[in-house]
């Protein structure tokens, strides 16, 4: 093997390596911006208020308890209610049919975003499926850990 | 009593696996024939012990022996027998025992089939297999022990997770998943053995390919069954949500698919050896990562997964396996000498390379989207997830290009091709592309990506169907009668080739069905009173009644809808709400009217037994059933290709036609 072909081979290798690096960076940039644009935040009412303006238009999964006496039918299948976490309350409107177990004092997760009208517009309402066998904790102060766990476990298909 | 027996068997399996693994590696160094013989014996012993332990657990479950901790955890006297058997893998500890059971089966069969045939690779392969086995036995013996003795056993248990009891598919999906997941250990062992020896010879490619193909088949079916189950049970009208659990099953499948393709380039050209070995190792690592993600509860909370020792133990094993693989690759990959090179951009092997890069790109896309929230939570303590649009917007274009390569790859010849050859093979399938896209447009497809998918699908379908029967046509041109030419060219000599085109054809159907069903789903929300009729997606839907049915382990509220099309009743759907004894919340169960053209799917969101009213979501998705059909066809096709061929016995030189060599491709 001559040194000329050796040099050529090295050049091809370098070229290939360079192409891979560039492609890798391009991929990372595309994927990174894709992720950045499509983050879904898991927030409690307190988190949501703490994030202020960032909440408008962001994809949010809001978890908390349905406040007592706050459920109002809005006509059609639409419902309005308040979600609280012990400290703060967020007003929620949803257009989807609430699931079977929806009632006061139950853990819910609503998916949607804050709108300028000052309420949370939800496109999806989920009741926490707690698979542990225990009686519902009535009037219990809401535990943050429990809320976070709930927001994740209501994911479809999670067992 | 029965619990102690189980523990004893597990400890025995741990010892057998450890001893066999060490002996295997030692025999790999010393080339001791006796050492290898003993390593094999320990492999069989491990298999026997772990399987016995599993049988002991099944007996304990069937006898409702609540003194065994796992039975007390998932057993219940009120569930049907099939649910009791299925509860073996319905919860964490049992599923890892089941993992050991499947691994035992795989190792025993692989050891038996390769005995005395690959003396160079077998000792190290057994060492790696039994090393993995030892880890899982350790997991079962320690952190995930299902055989604890409960001193004061309860009279009854809670039963397995109701979501798992809700459908029979859940009895089938996990075994397939485990057969897929666990089976990836075998090719991993061969790949590590090749690196340890510094040689990936032609002889070992066959066991490598076949031991990868079999779990790949199971994994394909398992992913499909998981989607089917989600569709039939979860009630949101779709089958795939880019949930971490789903992604965990998809990731190793992607790299395994890439490896199955690159092995063919190794066979044919003697290149991409190191790359293939890397893909196989990545597949195994992704299996362990997937096990960690799904079994450790890390997705419920990054910070609480350490509450049980199982998560950290699997993570430690993942870290060890990763370091082991990287070290092997770093020190040995240069030894796997390359025998040829890629001769041109427009060649079959170049397309294989593109295919591989696309699969790796898909793997990274899904991996990053899945793992990113975990990293953010671990570092910043903030909780979030990556939304569906990320996955869709990334995977759809890559998938479309992949479908395009699936079309042009097989149309191109191996090696260097002339411009004339390229034109002759690449231009005619454009007809298929135009026809299918136009057909889609006529029936109402407007989504641009779906139209692109149809065009690429039509192109690929035409190439695949043409290539599929090349051997038969050649024989017929030589004057053989059609029947004989089919049997000889397709079923016997060209079996592997025929099988791979069946898989390709099925993949084309699957991709089209996924694109069409997901982009053209119609959703309608309706509220019904008894006797009322409403329209949705061209069907008349009437609520005829709502009743309650009591069963020992659950009570169901069943609503009955009569579905009519053009005034004629075509089906009765009974979506229901099930209230399980041991659960607070009821679980809805949708019902589906399936036709080859599309599904009508009704899910109850709210039902009132007293007033006889129900709110439902109606989903109409075209072509869904073709996803299930095509993946099953894909699995059967690949299985057909695995049937041992007798052509190895027949002398290669009797085939003089140049195209005949292509039959192995």
Brief digest:
The complex is a heterodimer of chains A (159) and B (665). Chain A is of the alpha+beta class. Chain A is built from 3 helices and 7 strands; from the N terminus they run αβαββββββα.
Count of the separate structural domains of chain B: 4
According to DSSP, the number of beta strands of chain B is 11
Question: How does the helix and strand content of chain A classify structurally?
Answer: alpha+beta
Radius of gyration of chain B: 27 Å
Give the CATH H-level superfamily of the largest domain in chain A: Nucleic acid-binding proteins
CATH architectural designation of the largest domain in chain A? Beta Barrel
Rg value of chain A: 24 Å
Structure description:
The complex is a heterodimer of chains A (159) and B (665). Chain A has helices at 3-37, 45-50, 144-153; strands spanning 39-43, 59-66, 72-73, 79-84, 89-94, 107-115, 119-127. The model of chain A is unreliable at 131-141 and 155-159 (pLDDT under 50). Chain A has 2 domains: 1-38; 40-153, OB fold (Dihydrolipoamide Acetyltransferase, E2P) (Beta Barrel), CATH 2.40.50.140. With 159 residues, chain A is of the alpha+beta class. Chain B is globular. Chain B has 4 domains: 1-160, Four Helix Bundle (Hemerythrin (Met), subunit A) (Up-down Bundle), CATH 1.20.120; 161-341 and 349-391, no CATH class; 393-519 and 636-664, no CATH class; 522-624. Chain B has helices spanning 2-30, 33-62, 69-74, 81-86, 92-113, 122-141, 162-165, 169-183, 185-197, 205-233, 244-269, 273-295, 310-332, 348-380, 388-411, 419-426, 430-442, 448-468, 470-477, 482-492, 495-519, 624-642, and strands at 384-386, 522-529, 533-536, 539-550, 554-565, 568-573, 576-580, 587-589, 591-594, 598-608, 613-622. Chain B is α+β, with helices and mostly antiparallel strands and 665 residues long. The interface between A and B is large, with 40 and 49 residues.
